[in-house]
Amino acid sequence: MFAAARSLRLAATRSGNYAGLPRSMIARNMNSKVNGPVVGIDLGTTNSCVAVMEGKTAKVIENSEGARTTPSVVAFTKHGERLVGLPAKRQAVVNSANTVFAFKRLIGRKFSDAEVKQDAAHW
């Protein structure tokens, strides 16, 4: 398992997602003791979820609608209200210009990055 995580970190570092930060700044020593709660966030392209470690088991936290996953969608209404998850997804057809989705691949990239510029042409 650690080998897989290590290779993912190396791939992310090569692709620039960690912006050249040294490994010591992005990963804790696996031999160190964890104090306090541990929170895990699964930021997916389509859906996201959050879990907290309770002892040796992870408990997925339900969102305000009682679901264990939340659509990875954010929208801004004309009144300045911010919608997240299912409410944002529901109104995406009528408010597409102010709805953001599939943004995971852009996290950690500079606006001047070629891939970001290519995506921006479709916004």
What attributes does this structure have?
single chain; 123 residues; alpha+beta; four-stranded antiparallel beta sheet; three-stranded antiparallel beta sheet; 24% helix; flat; ATP-dependent protein folding chaperone; nucleotide-binding; Hsp_70_fam; Protein kinase domain-containing protein; kinase
Task: Describe the protein's topology.
Blueprint: H1 2-15, H2 23-26, E1 39-43, E2 47-54, E3 57-61, E4 70-71, E5 73-76, E6 82-84, H3 86-90, E7 99-101, H4 114-120
Keywords: ATP-binding, Kinase, Nucleotide-binding, Transferase
Pfam families: HSP70
Protein name: Protein kinase domain-containing protein
Structure, described:
- It is built from four helices and seven strands; from the N terminus they run ααββββββαβα.
- With 123 residues, it is of the alpha+beta class.
- The protein has a domain at 1-28.
- It is flat.
- The strands form two sheets. Strands 1, 2, 3 and 4 form a four-stranded antiparallel β-sheet that branches.
- Helix content is 24%, strand content 24%.
- The N and C termini lie far apart (38 Å).
- It has helices spanning 2-15, 23-26, 86-90, 114-120, and strands spanning 39-43, 47-54, 57-61, 70-71, 73-76, 82-84, 99-101.
Summed up:
Helix content is 24%, strand content 24%. The chain is an alpha+beta fold and 123 residues long. The protein has a domain at 1-28.
